[in-house]
Amino acid sequence: MPLTDAEIAVTAAEAGAAVVRARFGTDVGRVDKGGGDFATAADLEAEAAILDVLRAARPGDAIAGEESGRTGPPDAARTWLVDPLCGTLNFAAGTMAVAVNVALRASGRTVTAAVADPFSRQVYSTEGALTPSAHTTLVDLNLDPPYPNAPAIRVAGLLTDPAFEARFRPRVLSTTLALAWVATGRRAAYLTDGDLRGSVHFAAGIALCAAAGCVVTDLRGGPVLSGAGGLLAAADAATHAALLAMLS
Fold first, then answer.
1. CB neighbourhood size of 228 (10 A)
2. Are 86 and 201 in contact (CB under 8 A)?
3. Among 23, 37, 80, 117, which residue is least crowded by beta carbons within 10 Å?
4. What was the pLDDT predicted at 142?
5. Same domain, 121 and 142
6. Which tens digits make up the pLDDT trace of 96-134?
7. What is the widest separation between alpha-carbon atoms in the chain?
8. Helices and strands per DSSP (H, E), number in the chain
9. Is-cis flag, bond preceding 73, omega within 30?
10. In terms of pTM, does the model score above 0.85?
11. Is 52 among the domain residues?
């Protein structure tokens, strides 16, 4: 029986995660991408493993890979978005806070997605059991630049906001794995600045949060992915409203 798109996303994410896991702690080197960004051999090999799965299962689809760019039929109606190792700097520093992200976009929306944690061996899927909750009060803040909304809005400013200190506890892990944790109740919210349009980094995690019923907007409460508005994903409306008021 042919695999569904959701099953393919999970299989592809697992293939990438296996490479990341095997490469952890080895000499992976660095490939400079400019602006302080870099990839490692683990990024490249994990993406190759993911692309092998996608091309075999869906040869008519296009693929947008973080490392290899866009490949496949130029007129394809569907595009797979692949981030083979979100948290490369963490990985290179020997920190197990990373994610492998695979998402499928069709007709202008993400129709399925999977996020794999290589080290816990968990795979989170838009078709899986997702139960968001703010009970942990943990809020993950991505503090990596650039900050297109500064100085009007600074995510880092929450760290010294008395209202934030009274209600939440910050975590700064710099990986979109935290979005999967928002969708499953391990984080109350996740915030990042930046322009997310066309980003392979965030597509899968945002899709998980949307499938879970989380509140997902930009940092001003507007539509996410519509511009350089950043991202605020919260487990529930009350948490979202509280964080939005603090940012304002």
1. 15
2. yes
3. 37
4. 96
5. no
6. 999 999 999 998 899 999 999 999 999 999 999 999 999
7. 56
8. 7, 13
9. no
10. yes
11. yes
